[in-house]
Amino acid sequence: MYDLYGLGKRPLRLHRAKTCTRSTSRSTRNSPLVYQTDQSPRVCRGCLQMLRRKLANRKLAAHAAAASQPTPSTPDSEARQVFNNINLSPLSTESWFSPKTCGSVLIVLLLHLTGLYLFASGFLLTRLELENRSICAPFAFPSLSSPTPPNTTTPSCWHPKRFDRAVLIIIDALRYDFTIYNETLSSQGSTSTSNSSIPYYLNRLPIFQQTLQAQPHHALSLRARADPPTTTLQRIKAITTGTLPTFVDAGSNFFGQTVGEDNLLSQLLSQNKKITFMGDDTWINMFPNSLNESHPYPSFDVWDLHTVDNGVLEHLYPTLQKNSTEWDFLIAHFLGVDHAGHRYGPDHPAMGDKLTQMNGMLERVFEMAPEDAVVVVMGDHGMDPKGDHGGDSENEVNAGMFIYSKRPLVDVDGEDDGGVKNLLERSYALDVGSDEPFVYLDGLRTLPQIDLVPTLALLLGLPVPFGNLGTVIPDLFLGGGRSGMRNLLEVARLNALQIHTYLVEYSKQRMAASLALGNLNELFESAEKSCEALAVETADVETLREAYLRYLKFTRRALVTARQIWARFDLPLIVMGSVVLILGMLSIAVWAGVYLSRGEDPSYVPSFVGAGIGAILGAIGFVNYFAAQFEAVDQSGLKWYHEVLFGGALGLMIPFLATAIYHFTQLARTSPLRQSLRSPSLWLSTLLLTLHYLKPASDSFTIHEDSITVYIIQIFGLFNLVRSFRLRDDKIRDQLVLYSLAFMMLTRISQISTICREEQHPYCVPTFNASPTTSVAAPEVILALWVMIAAVRGAGRKLLKGADNAEGAGFVGPSVFVPLALVIAAGYWTLDFVDNLGPSATENSVLSSLSAGTVKVYWAKFGYTFGAITPLYLWASDPNCTSLEIVEVKYMDGTTGKRLCVNGVSNAVGAGWFVFLMGVYAVLVMYAKPMGGVMLGVGFLQVMCLCEMVHLWRDRARFAEVVEKKGRKKALPVELLAKVGKGRVEEGDEKSVEEAEKGVLEVGLTFSYLAVLALLAHRYYFATGHQATLSTIQWDVGLIGMLKVNWITSPLMVALNTFASHIFFALAAPLMVLWKRPVLSNTEARFEVEARWVLVAYLAVVGAGGSVAAVFAGHFRRHLMVWRVFAPRFLFGGVEILVVDFVVFVGGVGALWICRKGFNVFLIKLREKGVLE
Ligand SMILES: [Zn+2]
Ligand SMILES: [Zn+2]
């Protein structure tokens, strides 16, 4: 890493490694030839003597010639003289953190952030969670009726209660048409010989029809419309809080499932009511502290039709028989119907059986229902014709809802003026700003599902949850005549007041929403005015009804407006984000290709000027003009800052892209780039990346991404294997074949570890943990971890030794500190394993007196400081993997002399980076869990294969090719090198050598290795126990080394666990250009640039993947699987981009730093040896 050739105008290849007997590195293979002329007894490495002679022979510089004069000085001073002639000054003059050095990564980061932000603000439904609670106190307005009549049992809050208790029976995925009974079909079925003409899901729940006919005053059947995404979690949230769904709730619990907003359950709790729950365990995660009694059953296995239902049935009837002191609110959540749908689809005998079972259950429940209870039977959502759900098709949003009570519930007959029918017809005619069916759909009673929330709350005498947007179901409050209407008016007013309070509070927090919500105020105030004006006690039914309808108009308008604000995709923003992402992806790829082969940084000034101009154009509304061409721009949440960002991003890209294209046309004239464009490697990388990027284009590809990635990686291995056989050089060929095979075998091994996503059942068997139901590793995995750390350490050391870099940091790191760190990490997981065996297993053992759990906590605390930090710190203080030696040599003429030898020059920079990567591995193993540590080790071994493969292809095979192309079919690189070594290079040879050196960094080749690194990052993301779903995040690692959550280190550790593979493979990218790259004239500067641009190239590869995933998610925003598959995939793609950007930013700075630091340390060593003054 020193400027040996500072004087020479022409870079020449020199021998670089230490010994001549090894055969791994290129130079050493050729060394015997090179050194034959010297006939030195102990063959040499980077010898200055050689340099001196060559410089003299070729008369490249006058003072070099002077240095070659035989002077009667000591060899030491001779060496010193040479070094003094070469301008060796520390490289630390330029700051390693400057616009020039960080500009490329900074621009990429800005583009990614802007594109992702614009896209996400159009795509992700966001809503601020308010923590306010409704309180059980009278509203600050005069009550319409006389004060609440004194209640005998418990007092009511806002309105006198009608029921003391409630039973909520959720039959998951109970589609509306499952609940209706079609007589014609039934008779048809009974007359025909077979039932096959009727779908299995129809007429299986006659209980509803029977009850409606037998007790019309006691039952109400409704079609409840769920807001998409129609997933169970979102629906449970909606029917307890009354809010609209969001994908990302911008609240206190960003990724957790716990419901933070005011809800029915928390209102029940605050009134000291008792809640009993049984069924789908999703509830347990959502309401961890609200359930007094719970019988949860796992919802994970969608192929199991009976476990949950049988469990619920076991507890349901005994609970119903208990008296009123034991429970006030009973939740029973059945999953069988949903699972039958997922497994077989709705039209299947299993569905028929399941529904029949449910019918029997309901018969008993209606029979056993306590007198003082209201029973609600409902589906949380429907299902599509295949039995799945999640989207917004009619079949998915229409769920059944049936309300029953032993007390009279509804006034169906109705007097002519006060009846429900009349009221509904009137409300149907209201203009609520939407053509959504709020009252009837196809003539059938229809309403939003969230209407249940205020209805249940007020029926039970509870406050309505603070954020509710539903409207009370009028049928349940409208008794006969004037008093009934008055009751309904009062309830509607409470409902409107609650919604108004919520909207006012929300507008205070989110200014953006205040504008849209502002005009609702007028509606509310006009309703209030008309209500205050009328004399409630005396007004006739018609006046009361008028007042009610005004409130209804307000509450419905509020829901419609809120939906527009929160639950809409914003197409202009999605398009703008996609444009920035896609253009950015293309630009970054072109930049990386161009500047990587130029080995030079461009100027960033025009880009930032362009960004400024673009931002100004955006600010004055230029973007809006174009956005207006899209549909529904007036409904868009497009704001001035979005336009500024969009304009700025385009302005940033265009000048940079223009200069890159200019350089590209220039470069295209020179041979290396032309060769690159024609090279098979470029086609290989194109193929690999196209396959990689197309994965998010289909839901089933995304679901099976983990195994698809393996096949794409194997294409790479196979390509290298086949191509190797065509090489003429036996030794290179054998090595390449060996490495390709090893690489493919390791890829196969990575498939051992799997974690399954729900949709992969039953073809997927999770092996990451000991069993699907634990998060504990199997004992053989612990053993494998120990084997793996030994293997990584051994292989790493062998690789470094082979390149003569087992010196300095190259010795201390892999031999002492990295192994120690690895032992600490593996030791932690072993202790964790022992701890998980439970107390009985550690009895009578050494650990019996001190629990393994305590030991592991302190062990981990020690691990932080030592295991993770020390190796990286030691590396940072001296990343130099070379050593200096003065050896005695015997010349041909019999004289002896001394020579300065530098060991490991040929891989000085690459080795330093490799040692760093070992340190990174040691850190990641600590947080990756045992199986993750093993898998990352497999990945590391693959990186080692890749290092050697890229080196062999780049240096040796290329070199041979160039020589062959020059028409010297028989000239082997060995011969040519020998000539160089002897200093007898002819004109033609020189050109070949030069060209070989220039062609060293073939862009196509480099890109194919970067592509496979990106693929490996994906592969090992899955192998370390993750999937593109939130449920696979391994939260438990956040507690390593501590007894309770620390809000700084815990998220960091979870991030290190989740993105371990992305971090590791991004940091491995520089090795693809640094490994075994010879130090040539001015190369340390070139290395810096290349190391940085190869990282940008890696960003281009990774960023393109995330960008494409985003665009596909935008394209499929109406797809059934958007919330289950595409949106999480986009989220992970986006976070992956940002994580890799960050890692690369740090890594890019690190690349610079290691080049300079290593060089400066080397200078110090020279001084120590007395070679330099
Ligand atoms: Zn569900
Ligand atoms: Zn389901």
UniProtKB/TrEMBL annotation:
Q: Which GO terms describe its cellular component?
A: endoplasmic reticulum membrane
Q: What is this protein called?
A: Mannose-ethanolamine phosphotransferase gpi13
- The answer to whether UniProt assigns keyword Transmembrane helix to this entry is yes
Question: GO molecular function: any one?
Answer: mannose-ethanolamine phosphotransferase activity
| Record-annotated membrane-spanning stretches | 105-125, 573-596, 608-628, 640-665, 707-725, 737-756, 776-796, 808-829, 857-876, 908-928, 934-953, 1000-1021, 1052-1075, 1095-1117, 1137-1155
Q: Which domain of life is it from?
A: Eukaryota
Annotated pathway, please? Answer: Glycolipid biosynthesis; glycosylphosphatidylinositol-anchor biosynthesis
| InterPro entries noted in UniProt | Alkaline_phosphatase_core_sf, Phosphodiest/P_Trfase, PIG-O_N, PIGG/GPI7_C, PIGO/GPI13
**Which Pfam families does the record match to this protein?**
Phosphodiest, PIGO_PIGG
Q: Report the locations given in the UniProt record.
A: Endoplasmic reticulum membrane
Q: What biological processes does GO assign it?
A: GPI anchor biosynthetic process
This protein's record includes keyword Transferase? yes
Chief location category: endoplasmic reticulum
What membrane topology does this protein have?
Multi-pass membrane protein
Keyword line = Endoplasmic reticulum, Glycoprotein, GPI-anchor biosynthesis, Membrane, Transferase, Transmembrane, Transmembrane helix
> Any idea where the GPI ethanolamine phosphate transferase 2 C-terminal domain is?
1014-1154
Q: Which family does it belong to?
A: Belongs to the PIGG/PIGN/PIGO family. PIGO subfamily.
